[in-house]
Amino acid sequence: MIALFTDFGLAGPYTGQVVAVLQQNAPNVPVVSLFADAPTARPKPATYLLAAYAAWFSAGTVLLCVVDPGVGGERRAVVVEADGRLYVGPDNGLFDIVMRRAAGSRLWDITWQPGPLTPSFHGRDLFAPVAARLANGGPIESLAKPAGDLSASRNWPDDLAEIVYIDHYGNAMTGLRGTIVPPEARLVAAGHSLAFARTFSAVPAGAAFWYVNSNGLVEIAANGARADAVLQLAIGSEIAIEV
Amino acid sequence: MIALFTDFGLAGPYTGQVVAVLQQNAPNVPVVSLFADAPTARPKPATYLLAAYAAWFSAGTVLLCVVDPGVGGERRAVVVEADGRLYVGPDNGLFDIVMRRAAGSRLWDITWQPGPLTPSFHGRDLFAPVAARLANGGPIESLAKPAGDLSASRNWPDDLAEIVYIDHYGNAMTGLRGTIVPPEARLVAAGHSLAFARTFSAVPAGAAFWYVNSNGLVEIAANGARADAVLQLAIGSEIAIEV
Amino acid sequence: MIALFTDFGLAGPYTGQVVAVLQQNAPNVPVVSLFADAPTARPKPATYLLAAYAAWFSAGTVLLCVVDPGVGGERRAVVVEADGRLYVGPDNGLFDIVMRRAAGSRLWDITWQPGPLTPSFHGRDLFAPVAARLANGGPIESLAKPAGDLSASRNWPDDLAEIVYIDHYGNAMTGLRGTIVPPEARLVAAGHSLAFARTFSAVPAGAAFWYVNSNGLVEIAANGARADAVLQLAIGSEIAIEV
Fold it and tell me: A200 and B71: CB-CB below 8 Å?
């Protein structure tokens, strides 16, 4: 299976063209769009989101990951193997947290070259063909060469106390794993202090709370309302933990 | 075929994870997303929308239906067979109108249990695996046990004189079937009195009207404009019929 | 492969129903959504967008194209063959630029008739079944009859100096091909004069510029910002070229 993690959107041409390339190069491999609205051009929140959601997929999955504000510039194009999953995309921090949390990981620089490579759409022209070849079982050595480390030391924390994603319901995911925040802790977001609840129906209508979402991230929600609107949250909003 | 009727949105992780589960459990069954923007957390308008659109699918279709504000609480998880189609989802009113209109219907309580079941995402962890097994032809008796009735008598009307959905163009669907409203009737919505027209091009540019949409629901539209903006309509807006 | 070019949106019922029809009639043909947010009900900008993006697909692709404000009225339903690709949709200008630019093209009027044909959804009831049959290799003569010309002479220019699409990032595509605008030219949009840059990372953060996008259209963008918001651009905004 190939899973897409991008900031391309679904309605416009980008995801469709990428899927067309995958379909032509790996016709028997199913493709699912995991996120088409990852944080636009922001690898820092995106890496925490990716690390939480990629772990849900079984080993052998190829994750095509494109949040790539530096496309066409100098940033490297890489393949990461981490805990049996393969990641294809830009080296701009997007894979930092996946690699840091993996029991084992390896890094390659992509050497495969497409025919035409437009400077603004490496997702379609470079990363998708490489992902398709990997999903077909093509040997990674024919596509990339071993590399030592990611290009920079970004010093990002193990968990990010910020909002990293606002979902369709207005729920605000943080970059904090639920395992590091005790249920008795309160979260302070935009001046509001929030208690833990296990489910939406456990709090009064309209009330905001925090819980651990279905992929293990601490998430701020409101019962029957949009937490992002009620609490004025956006990607990048800082969160404090009060134990 | 499996058809999805949810309030999950498409761009974020929910639909993608559900599709991944379906793909893994029923790899040869095509999946289509019918609605990913069903009325958020509102089973009442959703049941009228579902009843109108499900009828378009052929017998044998499995409809995975998740508009589920009570997820993680006490509401039952059910399978409905109605007119040869199978529906999987929560017992919160979402299937009331489908069952009421069916020539024949049966109800089961889901007994199948997943490995991990997160309290906030039964769509992925419970309903999708059951839907996939049914679509594979798995016997329903291995997944669910016969049940008598839906859990509550909600006393919802046979047709709902409210807006139940605003589409991509700003057209406002009602919960009224076209068969019960004569063409000479006027609809009153947000203080505007609207006449029937057969097609958009039959009225002047900018004019609002009502017609019977391609799935049999009475719908309010405007030629070359968004009816929801022109008339200030939202899901839940009440409609009066003047004959 | 069947590629969809529509203004249907993805989340609501329209694309899903069309995909269901394609799946039932051409189960082995992959379907990709190229645009589900083509300019709503506006064939003029849409034809420049379609011509640029359709050219990216290989010969043999069937493009199902529905931007159809006159649905249910008198406009013809056609099949176009242009440079080895097949296009199915309404004759309202949507195919004008594709045909004008093709080395060779042919036109047919659709004669195939569905069972039920709702007046508001020819995409599902008429165009999708025809597209599926063509994708299956069905002879076009069984579906349509040769026609002379498109129904009207619309006198649209070879390239359109207007915004024809705003993408997910806020980038504004024009109807101008990059091959006709020299890199030293400046574009004037909504009172702003913009220089060429090759990539986003070549200009300062927040700065607006123009470039040639991955499908050959002149596009206005801003580094790390939404060009549509910064420059107040919308579909139809006029562009001037200063050489």
Answer: yes
